[in-house]
Amino acid sequence: MFTDLSKPVSGMDSKCFMCSSIQSRASAGNSIREVSFCDLGSKNVRHGSRGADSEALSVSQKEINDEDARLIHINDPGKTNERFKFAGNSVRTAKYSALTFLPRNLFEQFHRVAYIYFLVIAVLSQLPQLAVFGRAPSILPLAFVLLVTAVKDADEDYRRHWSDRIENNRLATVLVNDQFQEKKWKDIQVGEIIKIVANQTIPCDMVLLSTSDPTSVAYVQTINLDGESNLKTRYAKQETVSKVPEKEKISGLIKCEKPNRNIYGFHANMEIDGKRVSLGPSNIILRGCEIKNTAWALGVAVYTGGETKAMLNNSRAPSKRSRIETRMNWEIKHGN
Prior knowledge:
Elements: H1 14-18, E1 21-25, E2 31-36, E3 46-49, H2 50-61, E4 69-73, H3 77-83, H4 101-109, H5 113-124, H6 135-168, E5 171-176, E6 179-184, E7 193-197, E8 205-211, E9 217-221, H7 223-226, E10 231-235, H8 238-241, E11 253-257, E12 268-272, E13 275-279, E14 284-285, E15 290-292, E16 296-303, H9 309-312, H10 323-334
Antiparallel strand pairs: 1-2, 2-3, 4-11, 5-6, 5-7, 7-16, 8-14, 8-16, 9-10, 9-15, 11-12, 12-13
């Protein structure tokens, strides 16, 4: 009844008997793990998820339509912005301006239904037939509450304007007339070559051209973007790492996708020196990230200002509503 495992199994080669394949599939069918112990040199070993494999395949092979493409001439911002006027690198997170503060702030405040109720009472109190406490006493309480709230909102928005001003006036090293010069962030244009040094914040979304590392790698910290403190690696293409902007003219064309909010995806092609190379998420560094453990890195600006992935994912300051206010609005509307 029992088979002696020390003897070869009939009808099966002992070598094939030792070869096995382990395959585990998740219930959702997304993750695959295949390990082959037989002939590792001729068979592929795959680890990871099916979605990641298909996404990488689509990124490397998918073509960008001319209608959906964003054409960027390397080191030629004038030609880049000649046909399409791309957004500048200035950002704005404030809610109000000097002209829109009063109407917008009053509009937001009167989302509280109780304010509308007291406003109607104040208006009716201006009629002599309906005035009970006089005209001024009926207006002062509502006016005082509106004024205090407006002052608080104005102070908060002033701080946002001040923060935007500091951000836009920060300095970056940009290649101008074959020489690196300091330039304010808000003046950076798509197509310009920018030099980033260690521990410096990246002013816009850039495609890496070269780094100080011999292996053309740059280490980036993305804690300001996704909250992760671990360093991520980004790479420059071998076709551009040997070029020195101060000594030779760098020219080429980048055809990339239009601005989008996906911080983990990027699809583009670069034509340089008669060669065409594909670009992916590992070749782009995003605004708000910092260069670490790398002396310097060169990149060309592809997305600036409000078109950067960081700003597209940055929602405007919301109007604050407490649960009590929400409940009061409901009670006033539906109260008996």
